[in-house]
Amino acid sequence: MSPARNHVALPKAAALVEALPWLKSFSGRTIVVKYGGNAMTSPELQQAFAEDVVFLRYAGVRVVVVHGGGPQITAHLDKLGLQSEFRGGLRVTTPETMQVVRMVLVGQVNSDVVSLVNAHGPFAVGLSGEDAQLLTAERRDAVVDGKPVDVGNVGEVVDVQPQILHALLDEAKVPVVATVARGLDGELYNVNADTAAAALAVALQAEKLVVLTDVEGLFADWPASDEVISEIKADELAELLPTLSSGMVPKMEACLTAVQGGVPRAHVLDGRVAHSLLLELFTDEGVGTMVVPSAPHDAARSGNAAAGAPR
């Protein structure tokens, strides 16, 4: 075989070599991934996401998937003639809407995500926040123009019992969590998937929280500029949060909550890019926006820091 023919495979070999320190760094660590947006509705991106999750599982990464289901919920409400309304980035959830949310998230979306992953092997296990009291919630308001606004049966996580997740992860399974939860008052609540993912990341002492969304990341000065902020400290994000669009608030708030709760790194990635999860975890450059602790000594806990690269 001529030497030139061998060169065709060199870029693949280089990619594997670049991934090596990250594979070593993340093996045995826990990563919480919030899955939603276009990544969930495009068949091609669904397949790419499932492949990413299975790759991580084979690499020894302990992966927890927390999924939304906004488009699917809206579509089902439309079929029933029920209007979808959002305030402060949160869905207004009446008791009637809550039953639809539960049916769609637990009965449809959760099963679909589990099936996608399990097409590659018996890895994924579907759960909801109700199972084993994984999530306990209390009613929360949205904030619109600096004022609290009632949004119905929308909950804020006030307690996490992660034992069932630890048990599944110890068995090399991939927990897939639908974000409905019981409240202290016995009511059923719709918990924003970004918020739930942050709470689980903190409770599991995860190495990373990764939020897949429908934009490239956090823009420096949208809409005047399309420049994406590559890295931002927690205190800088806290100052910026009130100025963000309502759709970005829950995502960036989740990243901030995770990092302030001890998670070394939180990321917002463009879920419209196939395999963006692997690009973030296993390349030196990374993609999207990364939120890091304000104090330098906190950042040193990160697996990325241990690998000696900026992401």
Name a few traits of the molecule:
311 residues; alpha/beta; 4-stranded mixed beta barrel; 14 strands
Give the topology, please.
Elements: H1 3-6, H2 10-26, E1 30-35, H3 38-41, H4 43-58, E2 62-67, H5 70-79, E3 86-87, E4 90-91, H6 95-118, E5 124-128, E6 135-144, E7 147-160, H7 163-170, E8 174-178, E9 180-183, E10 188-191, H8 193-203, E11 208-213, E12 231-233, H9 234-240, H10 249-260, E13 265-270, H11 276-282, E14 289-292, H12 296-299, H13 303-307
Parallel strand pairs: 1-2, 1-11, 2-8, 5-8, 6-9, 7-10, 11-13, 12-14
Antiparallel strand pairs: 3-4, 6-7, 9-10, 13-14
Tell me about this structure.
The structure is a single chain. This protein has 311 residues and is of the alpha/beta class. Helices cover 41% and strands 25% of the residues. The chain has 13 helices and 14 strands. It has helices at residues 3-6, 10-26, 38-41, 43-58, 70-79, 95-118, 163-170, 193-203, 234-240, 249-260, 276-282, 296-299, 303-307; strands at residues 30-35, 62-67, 86-87, 90-91, 124-128, 135-144, 147-160, 174-178, 180-183, 188-191, 208-213, 231-233, 265-270, 289-292. The strands form three sheets. Strands 5-8-2-1-11-13-14-12 form an eight-stranded mixed sheet, sandwiched between helices. A four-stranded mixed barrel has the order 6-7-10-9. It has a two-stranded antiparallel ribbon with strand order 3-4. The longest helix has 24 residues, at 95-118. The chain is globular. It starts with a helix and ends with a helix.
The end-to-end distance, rounded to whole angstroms, is 39 Å
The average pLDDT value, as a whole number, equals 86
Specify the structural class: alpha/beta
Low-pLDDT parts are 297-310
